[in-house]
Write a structure and sequence with these properties.
This protein has 713 residues and is of the alpha/beta class. The chain has 36 helices and 17 strands. The chain has four domains: 150 residues, Rossmann fold; 167 residues; 154 residues, 3-Layer(aba) Sandwich (Rossmann fold); 184 residues, Glycogen Phosphorylase B (Rossmann fold, 3-Layer(aba) Sandwich), CATH 3.40.50. The relative contact order is 0.06.
């Protein structure tokens, strides 16, 4: 039995439809009707048609919410039916099961075409007559099916693509265009190449070329060729002089690759176009458009897929060259122009405790010891402010576009709102200690802090984001880094930090209670390598797997213990791809017992008693807390020379004692085998590591440096 699905966006002539139903039945077909009109108003007439079934689809938009109506009004009528009905269970079931799909009117064509993309074996037609012809002429053995013949006929011939593209592209019907860019055509290298030829042809109007390139890109994505989609968009962009259209295509090209976890090939070109557009908007007196465009340029330029979820970054390779185009922009120069403060920060009070406001946004991982220390300090009165705990503050502190617009002279309300929410805290505090140099630091420096001292701490992650470039550092008194190599990188990237109004800088290690880690280890811990923290691509646990396999060639007693949460595959496609490869290599090692996943734990000191060698396999770190904790526990430290900083004036080699850092997995394996050759050599090396960690990084030592910074003691 053949199933025919009729789709109607508006009420058809029921008399004509009744005749068609009888003809379909005479050919042995069951007939179903999807109605995107008021079926109740003609229910009796529909019942008399003796259909095998009909179903009411959503129609009209009056019953929808205001926001949904607003979105649907932007959708062409030809697509609106599909947008409203694509998740309809009845439509999907019958659309996938039918042998013939029929659009009864023009506004149903797109829906039938989309159903045909899923049900590739079905015939699809616009109108009853061609559907009847398809059923009357079933496939003859040895000949192409009617469906295949029709679809082949709808694919434009090479002549259309190679000559007279301007006239043909404008005349090409939307339905035919979608068929010509469907998966089979785009999977064909010949078809894809012909379309690229068309996109680069001279004489095509910009809007036509842009629309055509988007359609080709869509077909490429359906065909599983994101690189082809990017090439289609960038090819068209290269032949368009209108900056707005050109920039839009480049933006889409970059987004296509970012969504696939790929560092975009046209990223620099796209960012430069966006910066130029932002400058044009600014010169034209449109701060809102300038802010929106600059914000987009910064989001793309400092995207996590490019810098954070990869094993390398163009930002780290040449920091000054990477950020130079951003800071040449007229809009950026306006934003980073120092505004200073009306009065300098007041000296600490002598007649009462120092009022210290400690603040962050959701991430207090490195604040617990600092807070407990100053809460117990007689000379300090502490308040803690989590900006993420208040919806109003959270919205303001991460409103990047509004921050930029305000700096450009627009959105005065933003500064007023920040003033209203933050002034009571600033008036109370003598000193503000803001952890993490991200969006809240930009928000805080939007307003004059008065005579309150502002101290900001920058770890490592922030240097790979856009936020330090937007902070008004003339309103920051002290900038705290966790390592010299992080300061070098950040200063190279951010010109404001090289200017005369740059804040004072300090180097302070993270607050860590390392004495709790100094516990006895059993003898068999000598053969256990450990990695603390594997939740980011930057931790590069595959490097640790390489090291493990090398030492196991010498002695199969060596194992690798993994402590911490796994990577979240939802973070980005790049993270998902790395995790897939990691899991693939890990599976046989876990099965054999060579790798043991301990998972997340609140008792890291206990976990470290079983670890004899602590690894730092990362491509970048600020100061690797897990490694320092492992060293304090008397595990032998083996530190990869972090590639992001290797060979520079400051790096892992200047942060850690000589001998800890290795340049390759081979060197790592050699150090492990030598230091753990006997129990005595292993314990001696671990003892030296523990003594260094406790004398350099334990909280009783580091707390005195914090006191000197915040209290002048």
């Amino acid at each position: 039995m053949t199933d025919v699905l009729l789709v109607a966006a508006s009420q058809p002539q029921l008399g004509v439809l009744a005749d068609a139903v009888q003809k379909f039945r005479a050919l042995g077909a069951s007939v179903y009707l999807a109605c995107a009109f008021d079926a109740k108003g003609c229910q009796e007439e529909l019942d008399r048609l003796e259909l095998d079934g009909y179903h009411q689809l959503p129609y009209g938009i009056g019953h929808l919410s205001t926001s949904t109506r607003r979105k649907l009004k932007k959708v062409p009528h030809s697509r609106r039916l599909w947008v409203q009905s694509r998740r309809n269970v009845w439509l999907r079931r019958h659309g996938l099961g039918a042998q013939q799909l029929v659009a009864l009117d023009a506004n149903a064509v797109y829906t039938v075409w989309r159903l045909a993309q899923y049900n590739t074996g079905a015939g699809a037609s616009f109108g009853i007559a061609p559907a009847l012809r398809a059923l009357e002429n079933p496939r003859v053995p040895g000949r192409p099916s009617a469906v295949a013949t029709r679809r082949k006929a709808l694919v434009p011939p090479p002549a259309l693509l190679a000559s007279d593209v301007r006239r043909q592209a404008k005349a090409l019907p939307q339905t035919m265009l979608r068929t010509a860019t469907a998966r089979p055509v785009m999977r064909s290298s010949v078809g894809a190449r012909l379309w690229r030829t068309a996109l680069g042809a001279p004489g095509v109007p910009a809007k036509v070329r842009a629309a055509l390139s988007r359609q080709v890109a869509e077909g490429m994505r359906w065909a599983g060729r994101p690189g082809g989609a990017t090439l289609a968009l960038t090819t068209a962009a290269g032949r368009i002089s209108d900056r707005k259209i050109r920039t839009g295509l480049l933006d889409e090209a970059v987004k296509t690759e970012l969504n696939k976890g790929i560092a975009p090939r046209a990223l620099d070109r796209t960012v430069n176009e966006l910066l130029a557009s932002a400058d044009e908007y600014y010169k034209a007196g449109d701060p809102a458009a300038a802010a929106s465009t600059l914000d987009r340029a910064l989001v793309l330029g400092f995207h996590r897929v490019v810098h954070i979820d990869q094993l390398s970054s163009p930002l780290a390779a040449d920091p000054e060259a990477f950020s130079a185009p951003v800071h040449r922009s007229a809009v950026m120069k306006k934003i980073v122009a120092p505004r200073g403060r009306k009065t300098p920060a007041a000296t600490p009070p002598a007649d009462r405790p120092l009022r210290l406001l400690v603040t962050t946004s959701a991430n207090d991982n490195f604040l617990k010891l600092i807070l407990s220390h100053y809460e117990a300090h007689q000379g300090v009165e502490v308040r803690y402010l989590d900006l993420a705990a208040s919806p109003a503050m959270k919205r303001l502190s991460w409103a990047g576009r509004r921050m930029i617009e305000n700096r450009l002279g627009g959105d005065a309300l933003y500064a007023e709102q920040v003033e209203t929410l933050m002034r009571p805290h600033l008036d109370w505090a003598d000193t503000v200690f803001l952890d993490w140099c991200v969006a809240p630091a930009v928000m805080l420096t939007t307003i004059d802090p008065g005579d309150t001292r502002i101290v900001v701490r920058l770890h490592s992650y922030e240097a790979f984001t856009r936020w330090p470039h937007l902070v008004d550092f003339s309103r920051v008194d002290d900038l705290v880094y966790v390592a010299d190599h992080v300061q070098d990188l950040t200063t190279s990237l951010v010109p404001q930090l090289r200017g005369t109004q740059a804040p004072r800088t300090h180097m302070l290690d993270n607050a860590m209670d390392l004495s709790a880690f100094n516990r006895a280890k059993p003898a068999d811990a000598r053969f256990n390598l450990g990695l603390i923290g594997i939740s980011q691509v930057a931790k590069d646990p595959l490097w640790a797997i390489d090291v493990l396999q090398r030492v196991r060639k010498a002695d199969e007693r060596y194992r690798l213990l993994l402590v911490g949460s796994d990577m979240d595959r939802k973070t980005s496609r790049a993270t998902k791809d790395y995790l897939a490869e990691f899991e693939r290599q890990l599976a046989p090692l876990e099965e054999s017992g060579a790798v043991v996943r301990l998972g997340p734990t609140d008792d890291v000191p206990s976990a470290l008693t079983e670890i004899g060698t602590i690894l730092s396999s990362s491509v970048r770190e600020g100061c690797h807390v897990g490694l320092m904790e492992g060293a304090a526990s008397a595990a032998v430290p083996v530190v990869r020379d972090w590639p992001f900083y290797a060979g520079r004036e400051h790096s892992a080699r200047t942060l850690y004692p000589e001998g800890w850092v290795v340049g390759s997995p081979e060197e790592a394996a050699k150090r492990i085998l030598e230091t753990t050759a006997t129990e005595e050599s292993w314990r001696n090396a671990g003892k030296l590591a523990s003594e260094h960690a406790l004398s350099a990084w334990d909280w009783p030592v580091v707390s005195r440096r914090f006191d000197k910074l915040l209290l002048g003691e």
